[in-house]
Design brief:
- The longest helix has 15 residues.
- This protein has a seven-stranded mixed sheet with strand order 3-2-1-4-5-7-6, sandwiched between helices.
- Helices cover 44% and strands 14% of the residues.
- Helix 8 crosses helix 11, helix 9 packs across helix 10 and helix 12 runs parallel beside helix 13.
- It has 14 helices and seven strands.
């Protein structure tokens, strides 16, 4: 890890820290999982609030884990760090031998440390390799998708994961451009979007943001990973254990909301049935009727927090 990257990770501000502590309600001696440990900001806050607690920190990004190890060294054996995805939470926890989990935190999406490093290829504002891998040990990159997917696949990817206007037009432009030269750099893709959709200039959020988001989600299989991770987390929690999820766009938040809502239902039979036949019982009590958002002070201090949305639940039964 370069010195610049280390500095970015040290200066990273975790989002909604006070709300995480409020809803997670960590206690001394409890066992907690930070499914996206990043630079360790949330984990450090939890351990300061609950001395003697144990935390398993997981991240797909090995650079982030290296930084977390340095930032959390003072907590000693109270922290274990593992390389992996929260999608495989059950497998990772099994390796620790833990049988009771009192709380799980998942801070979803790309981190500011990753965006700010041009070599990671997440930003449409600066030039870098078209990479976008959160886990750089995986093979598939953004460039591979842009250079091999069909026009139909690209259009669907842009529409579904970026909810972007002009998805088919951009997909056609990609196919045409790569027939002359393969994509390899972020600004090649950003410039293509600007040229193919000139009517979108002046938008509050540049159109490129949506297409880069779509490509990043596809590279990292983010939505399917979130679904598996949320389900695994709810299964792992002990009765009374709490789960907190922070998301940053509507696609993620929708998945969390629907899975929490389903887990909180006592019956999922069709309304026309006179008696319940499904046998389902609620396994979660939803603690947040609406997503919790950062206040004006936090957004002023950390503008990237403005789109954060927190949902929480408590295991029952």
């Amino acid at each position: 890890m370069s010195e610049n990257e280390q500095e970015r990770q040290r200066n990273h501000e975790p989002v909604l820290v006070n709300k995480v502590l409020e809803y997670l309600a960590p206690r001394a001696g409890g066992r907690y999982i930070d499914g996206t440990v990043g630079a360790g900001g949330h984990t450090a806050a939890i351990l300061r609030r609950a001395p003697g607690a144990q935390i398993l920190g997981i991240d797909r990004d090995q650079s982030a884990l290296a930084c977390a190890a340095a930032n959390l060294a003072s907590f000693g054996r109270n922290v274990q760090l593992r390389h992996g995805s929260f999608a495989d939470l059950d497998r990772t926890v099994a390796q620790t031998g833990w049988s009771r989990i009192d709380g799980i935190l998942m801070d979803i999406g790309v981190s500011s440390m990753q965006i700010d490093n041009p070599e990671r290829g997440f930003s449409y504002r600066v030039d870098g390799p078209l990479d976008m891998r959160m886990d750089r040990s995986q093979e598939r990159t953004a460039a591979m998708i842009l250079n091999t997917a069909t026009e139909r696949e690209l259009a669907e990817l842009f529409r579904q994961y970026g909810e972007a206007p002009g998805s088919r037009r951009i997909a056609r432009a990609v196919i045409d451009a790569r027939s002359r030269k393969s994509f390899g750099r972020t600004m090649e893709f950003a410039d293509l979007i600007a040229a193919a959709a000139p009517w979108q200039k002046g938008r509050h959020t540049p159109l490129a943001a949506r297409f880069f988001q779509a490509l990043r989600i596809a590279v990292n299989d983010e939505l399917a990973s979130l679904e598996r991770g949320v389900d695994a987390a709810m299964d792992l929690l002990a009765a009374g254990g709490r789960m907190v999820v922070i998301s940053f766009h509507s696609l993620e938040d929708r998945i969390v909301k629907h899975r929490f809502r389903h887990a909180a239902l006592n019956c999922v039979c069709p309304p026309a049935l006179p008696v319940c036949r499904c046998g389902k019982v609620a396994t979660l009590a939803v603690l947040t009727k609406r997503p919790v958002r950062p206040d004006e002070v936090e957004v002023a201090n950390n503008p990237r927090a403005h789109s954060a949305r927190l949902r929480a639940g408590e295991k029952v039964g």
